[in-house]
Design a protein that fits this description.
Elements: H1 3-20, H2 26-46, H3 51-68, H4 76-85, H5 91-102, H6 110-114, H7 116-135
Length: 136
């Protein structure tokens, strides 16, 4: 068994826990995700040694939003950004996921479109870093 085999189920369990906590609005759901991630992020990060596992988390999150816990769907980009700010998902994983999704059917681009602002922000930040390195 590899880290990749564990990553999806661990993330699924975390999101399931967040969705089962008491909530009265979508902002409560975001707060629940923040609490669950704060509690379990070390465990999740342990199973994210490589970029592929981080991309697996994003793919699992898409699956969760579409199939089992649809309440997450409108919050996809906000939660993805939150996972990025908590260093659970790296910029490279998000940009690789976005690149893979570029060639997908339109139906598979729902969350890519929802995350366009985040992706553009990450791309611009990467370009600025490269320019600063070249100048320095």
């Amino acid at each position: 068994m590899t880290a990749a085999d564990c990553t999806g189920p661990i993330f699924y369990s975390m999101m399931k826990l967040a969705s089962e906590m008491p909530l009265s609005s979508s902002s409560d759901l975001q707060k629940n995700v923040a609490k669950v991630v704060a509690t379990w992020e070390k465990l999740l990060k342990y199973y994210l040694p490589f970029l592929d596992e981080e991309i697996e988390v994003i793919l699992k999150f898409e699956e969760i939003c579409l199939e089992s816990t649809k309440e997450f769907s409108p919050l996809f980009s906000q939660i993805l950004h939150f996972l990025y700010t908590k260093d659970v998902i790296q910029e490279e994983a998000i940009l690789s996921w976005a690149s893979e999704k570029e060639g997908a059917d339109e139906a598979d681009k729902l969350f890519l479109r929802q995350s366009e602002v985040l992706i553009e922000w990450l791309k611009n930040a990467s370009e600025e870093e490269l320019e600063e390195e070249e100048e320095g």
